[in-house]
Design a protein that fits this description.
The protein is mostly helical and 81 residues long. Helix 1 crosses helix 4 and helix 2 packs across helix 3.
Amino acid sequence: MNPFMSDMELLGLAARRLGMEPEMLMQRYYGSILDAEHEFEEFCRSGRLQDSFRAMLRARLNAMPGEAQESGDAGMVTVPA
């Protein structure tokens, strides 16, 4: 995994590899719909994930067995305007 990918690319890659929408990943991590919605709105506004969430996504992706390293085409998350 590219250590220099943007947070948007990281979230898109994690969502694709784990087979769920970015909002659902956030809901599972934060434990509540309201917290996840707040963090997703913050992400849409700033383009940055919370440090602990970013670290968890990287660790989870690095631990996935049998996954080929992906190129720079990590996929993008659609951020509502």
